[in-house]
Fold this sequence. Notes:
229 residues; 2 domains; 12 helices
Amino acid sequence: MTPGLSTAVWVLFTLATYLAARALCQRFRHPLLNPFIVSAGVVLAVLIVLGVPFKDYAPAKDIMTALLGPATVGLAVPLYRHRQLLRRFVGAIAGSVALGSLTAMLSAGYLARIGGLPDQVVASILPKGVSIPFAVEISALYGGIPPLSAAFVVATGTLGALVGVWMLNLMGIREPMSRGLALGTMCHAQGTAIALQEGDLPGAMAGLAMILAGIFTAALAPLAAALLF
């Protein structure tokens, strides 16, 4: 199979696997049937069974990753549709995301401290709640290990995607704006994707929260670091 054809096959296979996993999740509504986790697991299993090295799959991954930029910009569309709500609740939205971002840093940092982890690991885990570009830069400023921070970000998003909706339901949080803000603040891109599955309003709020959380985490990191180190 030629490289170009192979890449196209892997892109189509990945998309088909995701759509099937999403249909399964929507059918049974179980938190462990998260479409991102299920589809990634199936793709990895197929690569392992067929003996396909990751470098052969990488071009397909690069194509899909390149689409994240336009997809992120596309989040502005639902935000524009709900601009009246944004104007009405701008203070509450900004305040809740700022508090959530600071809480995420301090809770992770103090747990790492209690666990006796070294300063480098504590600094690496601080920005776990934001997207990787934000996290690696913040981590480096405070002596963290950027690749480790990236791993913490992925783990946080994956865990949030698995149990975030379940926890919100358990706590009785039903309001779409609140659910979207919580998922976007704590679980960044994966939380935003989950929120979009719940509807236009939660998805818009999650996308906004994801962006604001990156800004507030960077702004409040000096305070968190001063309290932890």
